[in-house]
Amino acid sequence: MNILAQLPVIPIILPLVTAPLAMLMPSEKMGGRAPFVFATFVVWAVFAACAGLLHSVATTGPISYHLGDWAPPIGIEYRIDLANALVLTLVSGIAALVFPFSYESIRSEIDRRQISYFYAALLICMTGLLGVTITGDAFNVFVFLEISSLSTYALVAMGADKDRRALTASFNYLVMGTIGATFFVIGLGLLYQATGTLNMADLKIQLAGDKNRMVEAGFAFIVVGMGLKAAMFPMHLWMPNAYAYAPSAVSAFIAATSTKVAVYVIIRFIYTVIGADFSFAPAAFAWLIAPLAIAGMFFASGVAIFQDDVKRMLAYSSVGQIGYMLFGVSFGTEPGLAASLVHLFNHGLMKGALFMAAACVMLRVGSHNCSAYAGLARRMPFTAGAFIVSGLSLIGVPLTVGFISKWQLLAAAFDSGRAWAGFLIVASSFLAVIYVGRVIELMVLKPAPADAPEIKEAPLSMLVPMLILVAANVYFGLHTELTVDLSERAAHALMGAGR
Amino acid sequence: MAGDNGLLSALAMNPAVILTVGAVLGAFVPNGFAAIRRPLMLVFVAMSAFQLQRLGLGEYGALSIFGEPVTMLRIDPLSRIFAVVFHIAAALNLIYAWRSRDRAQDFATLAYPAAALGGVLAGDLVTLFVWWELAAMTSAFFVLGPGTRATFLAAMRYLTIQILSGVLLLAGIVLVYRETGSLAFGEIGLRDGAGAIKMSGLVMLLAFGIKAAFPLLHNWVQDSYPKADFAGTIVLSVFTTKLAVASLARAFPGTGELVYIGAVMTIFPIFFALIENDLKKVLCYSINNQIGFMVIGIGFGTAASMNGAVGYAFTNIIFESLLFMAVGAAIYRTGTSKATELGGLYRTMPVTMVFCIIGAMSISAFPGFAGFVTKGLIIDAAGEAHAFWIWLVLLFASAGVLEHAGIKIPYFTFFAHDSARRPKEAPPAMLIAMGISAFLCIAIGVYPEPLYALMPYPEALADYHPYAPYHVVEQLQLLLWAVLAFAVLILIKWYPAEVPSANLDTDWFYRVPGRDLFIWAVAAVRAIWRLVWRLASTRFMRAMDRIYAVHGPEGAMARSWPTGFMALATAVVLGLALFIAFIS
């Protein structure tokens, strides 16, 4: 058997099988290093596999992998094209940085006896996100979605060791996530009822030219269910608390990946399953997705300005940023879709780096309140520097990935004849200037409180992954070959399939 | 955006970038090793010159920025002659202040010529703009150099004007792009086919005109250049205005208005120069006057007059620098540049005196010196165009040059009344730099053929003989009468005496009544703004309160809502989605 032919299944099967092994490893001997090291190596292998998949898809075209050699539409198919290869690389890449990053942070934030459970859950969470992304089977999406969601609830709840509010946050997330998943599976049921198939490509064929109330209702359920998972305004209310009270490393991982995966699923269902020419899609773009995206861009950013808690601020900022992605999708044009995919990738990079910086502050200062950031530029120069660079990226300053995102979005807005959309994007960016600028001002200009204890810079094991991610923010801001070109090709393929 | 390898290699091959790298490296040399800074920079000048020679004529560094083709490096006969003389001038400047230990000025001594060189070699308007602004910024180091409050203010005024020119250039670029759809830097012209003045041409001409110090746009030269120290003024005198001349020659050849602008430029500085006491300022007025000759040559736009304008720029850089260097040496040794405080230095600075006279004879276009073989081209062009009045103006201006630059500078520095100062001869490095310049002045004057071969239209020079008897006689008549006039004026004491005074130039209008007007306008704007602010601020604060009430930490948007409410929100969205699905 050729191992390379089995490459598509490795990102799923490897962490899924090794997660129980990680759980069996001792948490308390050697300070829980065994599960940590083990899981880290697994994740690196997964990242290597995903990068290999991206390379292979970019050079030779989409891959179709039949699980157990059962031919679709009966069997489950993993179908990897540029769009999901990009998301796979993002998720596994962020994981490959968060896992080594997490150790010091986690040891100080969760019950030490739970370290092996933690790494098992994080591996499973990543598996679920990768599975949602990689699969070409609609029901399989639901299965992996639940795998990732359930493990995320557990991970968020582990923050209770520091802050008991993590329990209610996790419980709310569980209820809301379940509602979202239920909506999603109801929608799937309706589609299945109409077509008798669950394979995405096959669904597309069966639905062609079919104008059917049941399908439209099913599609509405799917978009709303996934919109909830993506924290689309106004269904984002579960998210700020979940991100704020989860252990910092978990926040960094899920903020950079899970909502992006949900946005990806929305894009995938709109273009690959239902087709953009399906009458519901343009109406949904114009009357549902675009207004809610704009509302998110402004209201959530407005809330972020007044937040006292930096992690909550970043969470609200994420709601706004999801707004940008959905706004790009709602243009219904190829550049708009490409811009969304670019921003999806880039936002993962910046939010990951920002939450990592917040984790470093949490470790050394012990709080994620704004006051903890006063005078940080002198107390923790590298962490503050990382926050500033990725914060500038979030605003969209040239030389960072944020600029590339905004540029692509603006170009797409003007390209589709929506000059007003360009205006809204720029206007909401000013809100980002305020909320990021506020923290930067605290770090750089305000002195630390007089009674603040001496603190060290974050340990090297956290600094290095964080700075790699910050460097990626700059690197992909200068070298757009990978992100922009691949996104444009992915958008072209998706739209081409939609026609 | 272009491929990065393309960009990198395009940058690496550009002589201007090589110079810039040299300047930056030089700036990083620690102060303890300041002695190696200038030798190191000189090596980079040599490397850049070698690269220029190696590339030869052609266009390089073609890239595309946002889908627009740009040419970062264009070496054609017009840009080549400027590039050659910029290298000579950069090297001479480095040698002249060899013992300088000032990091900022050392950096600027190479970075500023580099920027001017980049601008001259730019093949497209975007590249031109970048170097244009870099030249403005790097040159400001010299004006800032002495570090007093007066120089700081002068530097701010200088930067304001230079940046204004840059902004106008940018506006002009946009207009040109809209008109032609191309960013290529070629002929723009002031008028369109129907003879109406083009907005794009006008804005571009204004941008170039500020840097070329057109009349009424010229005050920044006299304001800022003399504020730099003795070495800085020399560097400044070479590049900014010549970059503007090169750009004018590229974009506005044959634009008739330039002839009249140039004519005014050649005349008016003469009077200011005659009554000016500060010899540095005299030379700055002389820059205006000299640029005037070039502008006239560009305005005629014939092959011969373009040769004249460009060739005159070449030789002017050399002899104008020589004059500045000689006066600089006197300043270096005595600490003053006032005619009233100098004089009689020939006793102890004879070599400098000889070099100064060589420069003076060159600028006055004595036969046998560099000015003669190039200025004649311009005057001839006026004659050939049957522009009698312009021809007359040129002759008058030539006589005027002799008065203020050719005689006044050496006379008041080295002769005139004895100031009783007995300074030492200039240091060797200065003498070497001046010696090279003086040698070039004579060499070009005696054997102009290599310079003629460098000119943009060498074929137009085939039957031009600078030493035809007609030329020599005409010029000698002119010069001798002018010398006679000077001698007579001195003897009967009618020549404006050396008086320590400040002369008013047209900048008085914007520095005195203009300033008052400006201050009044500021006060008026402030009063109106306060009124508006008072009216708006209460409303604004109320609006902010409302936003905070909704978005603040306890606001409806940010509260931690119970699960039921979240589910309700989801249900509402689902209802909306279903509704849309059913009506669509």
Numbering strands along the chain, what is their spatial order in the largest sheet of chain A? 1-2
Q: Proportion of β residues of chain A? A: under 5%
Count of beta strands of chain B:
2
Major β-sheet profile of chain A:
2 strands, antiparallel
Shape of chain A: globular
Radius of gyration of chain A: 21 Å
Principal-axes shape call of chain B: globular
Taken in chain order, the helices and strands of chain A follow as HHEEHHHHHHHHHHHHHHHHH
Give the class of chain A from helix and strand content and strand pairing: mainly alpha
Strand content of chain B: under 5%
N-end to C-end Cα span of chain A: 38 Å
Mean pLDDT of chain A: 90
Please give the radius of gyration of chain B in angstroms.
Answer: 29 Å
Biggest beta sheet summary of chain B? 2 strands, antiparallel
Please report the number of helical segments of chain B: 22
Structural category of chain B is mainly alpha
Number of strands of chain A: 2
Oligomer: heterodimer
Helix and strand element order of chain B: HHHEEHHHHHHHHHHHHHHHHHHH
Report the end-to-end length of chain B measured between terminal Cα atoms.
41 Å
**Low-confidence stretches of chain B at least 5 residues in length (pLDDT < 50)?**
none
Explain what this protein looks like in three dimensions.
The complex is a heterodimer of chains A (499) and B (584). Chain A is mostly helical and 499 residues long. Chain A has a domain at 296-499. Chain A is built from 19 helices and 2 strands. Chain A has helices spanning 10-24, 33-60, 82-109, 115-134, 138-157, 165-195, 200-207, 213-229, 239-245, 248-274, 280-306, 310-330, 334-365, 376-379, 381-395, 401-415, 419-444, 460-478, 481-498, and strands at 63-66, 77-80. Chain A has a two-stranded antiparallel ribbon with strand order 1-2. Chain A is globular and about 70 Å long. Chain A starts with 9 loop residues before the first helix and ends with a helix. The model of chain B has no long low-confidence stretch (mean pLDDT 86). Chain B is built from 22 helices and 2 strands. In chain B, strands 1-2 form a two-stranded antiparallel ribbon. Chain B is 72% helix and 3% strand. Chain B has 584 residues and is an all-alpha fold. Classes of the chains: A mainly alpha (499), B mainly alpha (584). The A-B interface holds A 171-172, 175-176, 179-180, 183, 213, 216-217, 219-221, 223-224, 227-228, 232, 234-235, 237-238, 240-241, 279-280, 282-284, 287-288, 292, 299-300, 302-303, 305-308, 312, 316, 478-480 and B 1, 4, 547-548, 550-553, 555, 557-558, 560-561, 563, 565-567, 569-570, 572-574, 576-578, 580-584.
